[in-house]
Amino acid sequence: MEPAAPPRPDSPDPIVEIRKLWSVFQMPERRLVIHKDLDLTVQRGEVLSIVGGSGSGKTVLLRQILGLERPWRGQVRIMGQPVSQLSSRGASSRIGMLFQHGALFSAFTVLENVAFPLRELKTLPRRLIVEAAMVKLQMVGLKPADADKMPSELSGGMIKRAALARALIMDPPLLLLDEPTAGLDPDSSDGFVNLLRSLHRDLALTVIMVTHDLDTLFELSTRIAVLADQRVIVNARPREVVAFRHPFVENFFLGERGQRAMELLREYPFAI
Amino acid sequence: MATPDLTPRLDPAPAAPGQAVRLLGEWTAAQFGRPNVLRQLLRTLPRGRGHQPWDLRDAALLDHVGAQLLWDHWGHRWPQQLELLPAQRAVLERVAEFTATRPRRKRASLWNLYLAFGALLLRAFDHMKGFVQLIGQLTIDLRELVRAPHQAPWRDFSGHLYRIGATALPITALVGGLIGVVLAYLTAQQLRQFGADAYIVDILGIALVRELGPMLGAILIAGRSGSAITAQIGVMRVTDELDAMRVMGISHTYRLVMPRAMALSIAMPLISAWTTVAGLIGGMIAADLSLGISPLFFVKALPDAVRVSNLVLGLSKSVVFGILIALVGCHFGLRVQPNTQSLGQGTTASVVTAITVVILVDALFAILFSNVGI
Lengths: 272, 374
Prior knowledge:
The structure holds 2 protein chains of 2 kinds. By secondary structure, chain A is an alpha/beta fold. Chain A is built from 9 helices and 10 strands. In chain A, a hairpin with a 4-residue loop joins strand 1 and strand 2 (about 30-40). Chain A starts with 15 loop residues before the first strand and ends in a 5-residue tail after the last helix. Chain B is mainly alpha-helical. In chain B, strands 1, 2, 3, 4 and 5 form a 5-stranded mixed β-sheet that branches. The radius of gyration of chain B is 35 Å and the shape is elongated. The interface of A and B includes residues 130, 152 and 202 of A.
């Protein structure tokens, strides 16, 4: 079901389109090829999870989408435009990124962190900035009293929430998550997954996430892309991915750990 | 392809009283960020509150910042007549729900200032206590070193000796040499007036060997290595390495502080001798050029002008300076809190304190040994 959403400029292009991407790291004595002719397309409104073994280049792929790394060959397009040609101005109204450890600016309070992208526009009045930041803070489930805390005073779950509020402050249509539930206890992990689900629905976000956590994977994803052999071997709905014949997929989903999480497939059929 | 006008604006603008107000364009933070867009928009917003019918349906986009702007303009109330899309209503409802007045921050009163001053004093005491503890712990660790010298961290020691000592040689030579030149030129001017040209050897010799060589070396090393020590140990705190070390039962002072203090206590007198020599060479050249005192005469006259006790005093001062710089650097490094702000503050405080302490101790030496060697 297409969620009710504020109208976005309707371009027919997929929100992220990666064509023939090569990621290569130059080492002193050898060349390390991470991605080889990798193709990936993400449509609007999807929650795409990228899974793969360690070292398969999941985080590198996120960094390519963000424009933090330049492709060695090939192209990454965001909403029809090559990433390399996008200006840094307005970047936070295009993509929000939640880094694995939050990456909150430790010298700022939570409120200053969340308001930072707005303040850097240099045109908005102070009162509006503070109010907009307070709204986002409460949308991610933080209390107004948390606004003046420093990041070092926050728990892991609160850091993720504050970082999410900062990523969403300019309502970007695309949200990238790197291990959103890593390092959280099961309770706050569940809370965070619920928050992500409701934000995805309410804000009509397209979400791309890298995760190892099978619970999160099955609860949120509408599609799963499996990275192996330096490319995306399958990009499909969870049920189809689980049925895919590949040693990595079988090991990842059908191992003991995977079996437990698969129970969720039956519990949360709407996720599929 | 013609690009549609995305500038957020009203129709009609400025809104006439009583007439319906239509929103056009993208009401988003990205649009408000463009120069002059917001100022233009605020000017055209109708003055009277809530009496106009509002029509939001033609706005291409309305994000939370745009909704916040409207909500503030409406005085945190829904207008009487409002036409909008369901999605826009959802955004506005979220803004309405979460717009809260932020708890006021406490203002600075006289009492708070008094409390802040007290906290400052307590913190200063705490620093003193920590520093004394560090010295005490180091003494205990030295006993360990004497008991089992083969188990001491000698590799660390030699590494620090190289990084703190050997790599500082070029910069200290440059600074020392230039100060020697400046000093020689300045004194040469005065001495020429009295015809006491030959005394330049005494002045340069005493000043450089006894005071300037050790001081310049110490200040340079405090800035160069004191900050590095604080930053190294501070980063180890930020990344939990200090805790990891403690869990393994290894003492911070034994493994981190002692090798640095030992390395500096050996490197510092050597560097101060090196700086002194560079200063003397600089002074010698300048004396030759300005007063015509030949380097040969300078070298011959120097042992008579400067007694050996001056050299001993200068070098033993340097040992104390070296140990102090290492201890101050380690002290501030160990007190860094695990965040970037604290790391920066700690490093700054470490350099400032190290230089201040060096100068204070130098003054102490000057008073205590005022009748030695002169």
